[in-house]
Write a structure and sequence with these properties.
Rossmann fold; 6-stranded parallel β-sheet; 8 strands; 2 domains; two-stranded antiparallel sheet
Length: 247
């Protein structure tokens, strides 16, 4: 596919978790708050965290196919696994505070998105996440007003690689052609295969997306011979080279 590179680019779409937001920092926020919660309710902190994670995991696993189950409901159930019938207002403010405080961006992502914005590219989000979480994560890094369009699984009702996720994102991007757009993700099936099926050029950044192309032939950032991955970015600043605005 890289033999047909466009002369110019219209847009860059991003996943959030593992791409814009550092995944360990999300997990750290959970752990930080669960320690507070355990102390307030006289629970063993390690057991509380383990029970909370198990309940949350079981909730997400109960979903069918590509149907999206909201994280907010999962959090409710996870906290009720610790304290039966606890009211959401008893944990939600502290949970939001602690998890927001722990969030960290992936290296060089903020600067890269700002450069892409300055270059006039449309910037979009396509992420399996609740809408409120997408907004607070972007706002945490000062990107809320920089991103032009946000598509979440909560808003669409389905998870990637469902084509409706990408159709929704492209529908919000007036004048943007998929064949002149990039999608940056960290999961091979959800992001790389889903993005390719939608007609987007894909960029593997970490996760299973990068793992799948470990032995693939490279020509700079271009990946040769993989059906789903067009480019590989080890550093977010590689996107500037890909779109042709590197220093």
């Amino acid at each position: 596919m890289t033999d047909d590179l466009p002369d110019s680019w219209d847009a860059v779409f991003y996943d959030i978790g593992g791409v814009i937001v550092n995944l360990p920092s999300i997990r750290q926020g959970y752990a930080d708050y669960l320690r507070e919660f355990a102390a307030e309710h006289d629970l063993d902190p390690d057991e509380a965290l383990a029970t909370w994670r198990e309940a949350l995991g079981d909730y997400f696993k109960s979903g069918e196919g590509r149907e999206y189950k909201t994280a907010r409901e999962g959090y409710r159930r996870a906290f009720r696994a610790l304290v039966e019938d606890i009211d959401e207002e008893a944990w939600r403010p502290g949970f939001k505070r602690a998890t927001a405080a722990a969030l960290e961006p992936e290296p060089n992502i903020v600067e890269t998105i700002e450069r892409l914005d300055e270059a006039g590219l449309y910037l979009g989000i396509v992420s399996d996440i609740d809408t409120w979480e997408a907004h607070r994560m972007l706002d945490r890094f000062g990107l809320g007003d920089t991103v032009d369009g946000i598509t979440t699984s909560e808003g669409v009702g389905f998870k990637k690689p469902d084509e409706r996720m990408f159709a929704d994102a492209l529908g919000k991007a007036e004048g943007v052609a998929p064949e002149r757009s990039l999608y940056v993700g960290d999961r091979y099936e959800h992001d790389m295969q889903g993005g390719t099926a939608a007609g987007l050029w894909t960029v593997a950044y970490g996760g299973t997306a990068a793992e799948e192309i470990t032995d693939a032939e490279r020509d700079g950032c271009c990946v040769v011979g993989d059906d789903a991955v067009d480019f590989h970015a080890e550093d977010h600043r590689d996107l500037l080279e890909i779109v042709g605005i590197a220093d």
